[in-house]
Amino acid sequence: MPSSFSSFFSRPRAVLLGAATAVALGAVLLPAAQSQIRANPSLQPMGVSASGNGSTAWFHDPATGRAVACHHSSGGAIQCQAVKLPESS
Questions:
Q1: Could you read off the pLDDT of 22-49 as tens digits, one per residue?
Q2: Which residues contact 13 (CB under 8 A, 6 or more apart)?
Q3: Number of neighbours of residue 67 by Cβ within 10 angstroms
């Protein structure tokens, strides 16, 4: 009887050890699964226009004082250019 008694208590101990290992491993690996880039875009749409086979959209980023113009042509490509606006005095 003592051998079955000790094997009964060794199983829960092994399950508990396995569960504790899984929790510890999950706590270590979970933060690594987060994205490394934390971008908070602050572009505000300013206007759009279309002419012929293309269209352009303008955006403003008040945090950096930059203006962005993105042009879409009939070929499907989108090209964007950004410039720093002069500061008003």
A1: 777 666 666 555 556 666 668 899 999 9
A2: none
A3: 16
pTM higher than the cut 0.70? no
Given a contact cutoff of 8 angstroms between Cβ atoms, the answer to whether 69 and 78 are in contact is no
Cβ pair 60, 69 in contact under 8 A:
no
**Cβ partners under 8 Å of residue 44, min gap 6:** 59, 60, 61, 62
Token readout for 34 is: 């987060």
Token representation of residue 4: 């079955």
Q: Report DSSP state, residue 34.
A: S
The tokens of 58 are what? 């303008």
Q: How many helices (H) and strands (E) does the chain have?
A: 1, 4
